[in-house]
Amino acid sequence: MGLFRILGIEPPSNAAAGAETETVRKITRALDQMPPEGARYLAAFAYILSRVARADLVISDEETRAMERIVMETGGMPEDQAILVVQIAKTQNLLFGATENFLVTREFTKLATREQKLRLLHCLFAVSAADESISSAEDNVVRQIARELSLEHSDYIEVRTRFREHLAVLKKPPGPAA
Description:
- Helices cover 65% and strands 0% of the residues.
- The protein is an all-alpha fold.
- It has one domain: TerB-like (Orthogonal Bundle).
- Helix 3 runs antiparallel to helix 4, helix 4 packs across helix 5 and helix 4 runs antiparallel to helix 6.
């Protein structure tokens, strides 16, 4: 991993880079060992994972570890690099989420195939379920992201069904049995 790229000294190398958001650029710089298109894809992917993890305003350790594992598998990268990518994505989401969420998802939509979008949808639910409970806030953000990805509602329902046991809205509330 090049020190200059991590520090952001090297500017994007092609005209298409001008259209990407600053958030994706920062994460992309950490992925200098990948081809530029692959790095942009993975940067947006990681950012969107952090978007759903932060939906309930708290990113748990379990959600962070799930994101790191998913980014490591998706990017085919070593653990230390995946940790860095996830940390950058989490920080960028915390700082700029209100303005960047839709922009980054729109960029991902341009880069991804339908199969990649469905994989992301599955990963969003996996991150949400990492702490054994998908809150209503997380579920709503996943639904919104699915719409932004131009996926069908049936796609969302199909993937959501696989995580049914983790949906907080369907769990019995704790307390004495009636």
